[in-house]
Structures are given as C-alpha cells and as structure tokens.
Amino acid sequence: MSPPPDPLQEAVARLRALVTESGCEDGVVAIRRTPDAPRCLYERGAVIQAEFGGRTGAVCTQDPVQATTRISFMFDAVMDSPQKRSAALAIVNVVSAFFCLARKVHACPPECREVCLRELAGELRGKRVHAAGDLPGRDRATGITWVEKAEDADVVLVHAATLLRAGEGPGSDGPPREIFLGPSAAGVASLLNRSHWCPYGT
Predict the structure, then answer these.
(1) What is the tens place of the pLDDT at every residue in 15-24?
(2) Considering only Cβ atoms within 10 Å of each terminal Cβ, which end of the chain, N or C, has fewer?
C-alpha cells in the first residue's frame, strides 16, 4: 500500500518548477523565532518567521528552527524530520508571498479569533468534517459533525500540525473538498490551488 500524498512535498515540487532558472532558487532565506508574533487560533507551538526579498511569512510549529539557507535547500531534501518540514513550510510561505501567490501568511490580531471561529463553524455546520492530528479550537466549533476517517468526511481540514508531519495530509487524492486552515498553510494552499481559510490574517 503506497503512502498518502504529501501536500508539502507537492508544494515544494511546484515551487521548484516556478523558480528554477529565475535566479530566485539561489536566494537566501533567513528563518528566525518571533516570540512576540500573534498565533493563529488553529495552530499550536512557537512562531517562526522567514524573510526573503523584503517579504516575510510565518509558520507555527512545535519544532522551531533558526537558520539562514537557500531556497534550493528543500528541493532535494528528504523531509524526514519536523525541523526540516518546519523550515520548508516557512520557505514555501515566504516565497509564495514574494511572488504574490499567498497573501495571508501571518496570524490575525487576537481580537479576530472568535469571529473567525464562528464563521468557520457556520461554513461547516451540517457537514461531516475530518481534521487529522491536534486541531486547537476544535472543541469550541459547535454544530459540526467530526469524523475520524478522511474517507467518511465531506470536508477535510488541513492545518499546520498535519503539514508538519509526513504522511498525515490528504494531498491530491483527498475527498471532494479540502480547506487549508490558518496562515501556516497559506503557501501550500496557493501552490496547490486549494481553498484556504484565513479571513483575518495579514
């Protein structure tokens, strides 16, 4: 039985095709922890921020890294650790922002969290929803029927925790509808042309 598709690896492959021979593949990305940055309601961990070409993009991760590297580092990298995946996801976010593919790559202000949760619950009410891994805020989203298996769901929520663990994301063979949730998922969603929920992100 083959492993499930990996949305992060798919996004890296599409980003590689986008930047190859543009000169950007040799561009330097700085990744730093930003402890004072706001964190998305649907994400858990420390916020790291990648900077490239005057743009920034944030990722929330339980395995924060700090590094200065090139975009091309991730093209042939084996994404076999949460640290490597955190760095790759941060690079995907900031480079997608640099190319104006993704716009909501930072969490919203804390005062927007409750209205975001209410609107998401309204969007999903009456549907069978699957969210792999630990999804913060799940217990407060009322009126949603949660299911344990993606194949039983009408909607799968793909969030930071799933993207940072190999083999947990549904990828291109998922159910009819996927929603990529939160700012950490913005770059992957844009590169894979998936629906992205982050109405108040910046």
Answers:
(1) 999 998 888 8
(2) N
Question: Are 164 and 156 within 8 A, CB to CB?
Answer: no
Rounded to the nearest 10 degrees, what angle do helices 7-19 and 82-98 cross at? 40
Per-residue pLDDT tens for 124-182? Answer: 999 999 998 889 888 888 888 999 999 999 999 999 999 998 765 555 455 568 999 99
124 membership: H or E segment, kind and range? helix 113-124
Q: pTM higher than 0.90, yes or no?
A: yes
Q: Are 58 and 47 in contact (CB under 8 A)?
A: yes
User: 178 near 158, Cβ under 8 Å?
Assistant: yes
Q: Across the strands, what pairs with 55?
A: 52
Are the beta carbons of 138 and 44 closer than 8 angstroms? no
Q: Are 180 and 194 contacting, i.e. CB atoms less than 8 angstroms apart?
A: yes
| SS3 of residue 142 by DSSP | coil
Give the closest residue to 201 by CA, choosing from 56, 21, 19: 56
Where do we find the tokens 């590297």? 69
Which residues in 181-200 are b (16+ Cβ under 10 Å) and which e?
bbbbbbbbbbbbebebbbeb
